[in-house]
Design brief:
Elements (H helix, E strand, L loop, with lengths): L1 E6 L2 E6 L3 E5 L8 E11 L2 E3 L8 E12 L3 E7 L4 E7 L2 E12 L9 H29 L1
Antiparallel strand pairs: 1-2, 1-4, 3-9, 4-5, 4-6, 6-9, 7-8
């Protein structure tokens, strides 16, 4: 089973137990992070989007913060005596992928049937309240 996740504006293919190097994250070492899934593939089954993708949970642990390899640059213009050197090192975070789960139910607070039943109850209550007030007005005239 593997998943495609989004982290720091980039997409990565991860499996359970993988070690992944991403751009620096603000979390401390040892913190658990939930990554945003874009796709899940498990043999013949795959989840590409929609409501099923909300049920996919990819957890990772921040192993350590590191710095990337130094990149050297040089600006040079011939016959003008112009030469500039510069360097850059990226700040990185190493993640250990823990679990990739496909939940059997929707996360809490996301149930559609509860919201539909509440809407129908509210509409019934508002309709029953509106009708008696009209009767009282019409009876009083």
């Amino acid at each position: 089973m593997y998943a495609i996740v989004k982290c720091g504006g980039k997409q990565y293919r991860v499996e359970t137990g993988d070690s992944l190097v991403v751009d620096r994250m603000g979390e401390d070492e040892g913190a658990k992070v939930t990554l945003t899934p874009l796709m899940l593939a498990d043999g013949e089954d795959s989840v590409l989007g929609g409501d099923e993708l909300e049920q996919v949970n990819v957890e990772a642990t921040v192993t350590r913060h590191e710095r990337g390899k130094k990149i050297h640059g040089l600006k040079f213009k011939p016959k003008r005596g112009y030469k500039r050197r510069y360097g850059h090192r990226s700040d990185l975070t190493r993640l250990q992928i823990g679990e990739i789960k496909l939940l059997s139910r929707q996360p809490a607070g996301k149930t559609d049937s509860d919201s539909d039943s509440k809407d129908s109850k509210d509409s019934k209550d508002s309709a029953s309240v509106a009708n008696p007030s009209r009767k009282e007005e019409s009876d009083g005239s």
